[in-house]
Every structure is written in C-alpha cells, then in structure tokens.
Amino acid sequence: MRRWLALLVAATTSLVLIALLVPLGLLVRALAESSAVTQATAEAQSVAASVGTADADGLALTAERTSASSGHDITVFLPGGTVVGSPAPRSPAVELAARGQSLTAQTASGLEVLVAVQGLPGGTAVVRAFLGEEDLRQGVREVWLGMLVLGLALIAVGILVADRLALALTRPMTGLARVSHRLAAGDLTARATPGGPVEVQDVGLALNHLAGRISDLLAEERETAADISHRLRTPLTGLRLEAESLADPEEAVRLGSRVDALERAVSSVITDVRRRSQENASCDAAAVVAERVRFWSVLAEDQGRPMELDLPRGPLTAGVSAAELSACVDALLGNVFAHTPEGASFAVRLAPAPGGVRLEVADSGPGFPGGGEAGDPLERGRSGAGSTGLGLDIARRTAEASGGSLLLDTSPGGGAMVVVVLGAP
C-alpha cells in the first residue's frame, strides 16, 4: 500500500507541476524575448540620436561603443547606401524601415530591431540592432533548470509526505494482522494497540473484544468440562464397583462394558477441551491437589480406604491450568478406586522438583501388569486389567503439555505408583 500511495502522489504532483510549470516556462521565454527587444530598441534609439549630429566617423565610433557594451551588433544604414558600424546586409525589412517606419523583423538567424531616423538631408537613415538566438534566450535555460529542480524537489517532498502518511496507516494495520495471526496460532493473550485513523482504531478495539470473548468462551468450556468430569467420575467409580460385585458374570461384564464406554466419553470430552486450549496457563498445584483429594476423600471413607496426603506448606506453581491438573488428579485417583480392592490404602504426595512440580499417587493394590514397567499401561486403550487406559493417557498428556513427563513405578507397599512431573510456567 505504501508503494501505491507513493506512486499516486508522484503522478498527481507531476501532473499539477506540468500544468503549472510548462505555461510558466513559456512565459519566462516570452519575457526574456521582450526584455531583449526592449533593451535593443533603447540601444538603437541612443545611436539614432547621434545620426543627425555626428559625422560618419563619429557615428561609427558611437555604434562600435554601443555594440561593445551591449554585445549586440549595431549597424547604421545612411541615406545614399553608406553603412556604418557592424557589417550587415540590407534586408527587405531595412528597406521598409527606410520609408520611415520603425519595426522588428524576424530573420533566419535572429531578430532585427530597426529604428527609422527621418529628417536627414539625403533621406531616412535606419539604425539596426541585431539579436541572435542566444540574446533572445539569455537566462531562460537557467530559469528552466531551476524550475525543473524545484519541480523534482516538490515531487520528492510529496512522495516523502505520502510515505509518512501511508506508514501511519499501514503500521497499525500490520500490527492488527500480526495480532490476528497470533490469535490464529492459539496465543489468546495477543492484543492489538489501537492506533492510526479512527476507523483502524475501531478495528483494533473490535479485534481485542473478539479475542477477549474467545478467551472467555474457552474458559467457560474448560470449566464446564471439568465440572462435568468431576461430577461423573465418582458415580462412575461407584457404578464400576457395583458392576464388579454382581453375582452374574455375564451381567457384570455387560454392565462393565457400558461403564467403560461412558468413562471413555467423559475422558474424550476432557481431552478435546485440553486440545483446544493451548494458551500458557499456571495454577497453584497445592491448592488444586488438596481440593481434589478432599473431593475423593468422601468415597475413600465410605470404602474404608486409609488415605495419606503430603502437601507443601506454601503455594506451589505448576505450568498447567487448574482445570487440567484437576482432570489429571481425578483420572489417577479414579484408577485407584477402580483397580484396587476396597480397603486398599493410597497416598498422594506433592513436592517441588527441579524445574517444576512432582506429583506422586501410590496405592497398596496389585500394581501394574508386568511388574510395573512403563509399557502397555501408558498405551491408550491397552493398559490391561479391564481398563481403557484413558486415565493414564490424560495424566501423560497433562505432563507433556507442561513440558514434563509421566513415570510408572512400584510403591513401597508393592502396589502401583504414578509419578507426574509438571513443568514450571
């Protein structure tokens, strides 16, 4: 846009200058010719004043002095054919002036200024002042060159001013485009700084409002999905336990498969929300873990499960959102209640780690298949023991999204231990 505006201003300025300077240049040339003719007429008249009073020698001396001082050839045609001063042919214009008429005549090489001197004894004398092309154009080229330089300078100034104005318009528009690209890439913290014309400022304010609205909608979506997952996991765990306690094996398998399908649907909602929310987030991991453990402690008390909670005294910041960390803790505690017998104890520990936070969830159950090695349990849908593997997949994705990792180990009591290392914000 800057280039097009500069070209437009250059073209417009050029047309205006051409329309102004061409007539002005012609006027300058006409004025130069008129000034030269006026000067030559005055010189010829000054010589003509000496024609009747001086002899031929004195007249010749006067003509030579005037010619030398002015640079114009001065010639006096006396009656009887005598020529005094600069040699010159007797042209038809001179013959016409000899009849008593002063005039100016154009020749092939210049301009003749003829002054008739009447009342002489022998007839009429004619004083001729000759102006060449250089005399008629004296000073015109310099003026034209100055006008050309002035025109080019005006065009350059116009282009510079247009470029500054275009920059004042395109810079905020470029900023808006940059902010929109950042928003499209998932950086919902990007905001435009309104600037430029009022219309561009309105666009910037509208873009900021849109970005804020998008952030609010995504936050509401995350909170809704997290709330739904919190509300459903405890009933799902209870329903799974009820299904496993049925006396009819076929009915237990059938109902268990339905519970698995519902758990996959809930986990899929959580995963989709986390995938759509990629902006940088952080939370107080100690507060989030404490709140989720309190939530699950009701079910633990009903099943007679001893519970151990080890949290730091102060806040501990992790590079994940509170909703993501809540979903991770719910998934890990849900696995404890789903895959360990009633009465099996579990422990939740949270501590600082180099570059982040370390979360441990350990139980006294049967442990992972294969001795607790990090193999199939981390593969989505292939964890074994009748599990879908979605819980560990949610925990792994949460850890990796923060720049951390997920480790599987054996607890001191022989059960399973999941270690989630969360990166710092």
Automatic annotation (TrEMBL):
Q: Which residues form the HAMP domain?
A: 167-219
Taking every annotated instance into account, which residue ranges of this chain make up the domain Histidine kinase? 227-425
Record Pfam families:
HAMP, HATPase_c, HisKA
Catalyzed reactions per annotation: ATP + protein L-histidine = ADP + protein N-phospho-L-histidine
In terms of InterPro entries, this protein maps to: 2C_sensor_his_kinase, HAMP_dom, HATPase_C_sf, HATPase_dom, His_kinase_dom, HisK_dim/P_dom, HisK_dim/P_sf, Sig_transdc_His_kin-like_C
State any single GO MF term: kinase activity
Q: What is this protein called?
A: Signal transduction histidine-protein kinase/phosphatase MprB
Q: Which organism is it from?
A: Sphaerisporangium flaviroseum
| Organism placement in taxonomy | Bacteria, Bacillati, Actinomycetota, Actinomycetes, Streptosporangiales
